[in-house]
Amino acid sequence: NRRFPLPSARFYAAEVLLALEYLHMMGVVYRDLKPENVLIRADGHIMLTDFDLSLQSPPRFVAEPLSARSSSFVGTHEYVAPEVASGGAHGAAVDWWAYGVFLYELLHGRTPFAGATNEETLRNIVRAPLAFPLAAARDLIARLLVKDPAARVGSLRGAADLKAHPFFRGLNFALLR
After folding, report:
1. Is the C-alpha dihedral spanning 115, 144, 15, 170 positive or negative?
2. Which residues, including other chains, have CB under 8 Å from residue 139's CB and lie 6 or more apart?
3. CB within 8 Å of 137: residues ≥ 6 apart
4. Domains identified in the chain, total number
5. 100-123 pLDDT tens trace
6. Cβ atoms 65, 154 nearer than 8 A
7. Is 32 known to be catalytic?
8. How far apart are CA 79 and CA 95, in angstroms?
9. Would residue 65 count as lying in a domain?
10. CA–CA distance, 88 with 73 (Å, rounded to integer)
């Protein structure tokens, strides 16, 4: 069973959310969020690894959302956003899409759009509807996996939109540091 219990999934999802928020504030679009790149340290907290696909804006402190854009195809097929799969320009919203896939996988034990081939996976990302075997975090994941990046939660106000979601109700983000 590759699923995380809900309390553990909520904790690790919150930690990854804070990491993405920090990266975005520093002008970095991560572009490679997946479980293999989320390491759990000895103290139980996470750290992200493998930044070779990241997109760096000019080195200055910036507020979310980032305006950095790229047209390159990068990332693991099951985690790429529709705008990447379609060959379009993309920005920080790709991290929120990957975060939705990551959260889905934490709770369901699989990614939502996996196909038998990479091509089928990309077609599913662009065209297939989202299905949920479980109700946990359904609303948050559905808002993260919106195919239009401008309408995706996090695209307008960054991590603040996600932190305010009922999935994280009762969680004190300041204590996760």
Report:
1. negative
2. 165, 166, 167
3. 9, 13, 103, 104, 107, 167
4. 1
5. 999 999 999 999 999 999 889 989
6. yes
7. yes
8. 9
9. no
10. 9
Tokens 């320009």 -> residue? 89
Residue at 64 is within a domain: no
Classify residue 147: in a domain, yes or no. Answer: yes
Catalytic residue among 32, 50, 139, 148: 32
Tokens 């904790």, located at residue: 11
| Residue at 57 is within a domain | no
Query: Which residues on adjacent β-strands are paired with residue 46?
Result: 40
pLDDT at 73: 47
Q: Report pTM.
A: 0.86
Q: Residues, the chain, total?
A: 177
In single-letter form, the type of residue at position 61 comes to: F
Residues 39 and 49: beta-carbon distance below 8 Å: yes
- Residue listed under structure tokens 């540091």: 177
Dmax over Cα atoms in the chain, in whole Å? Answer: 43
End-to-end CA separation in angstroms for the chain: 29
Pair of tokens at residue 121: 């996976």
Supply the CATH number for residue 30's domain: 1.10.510.10
Range of the domain at 38: 6-49+72-170
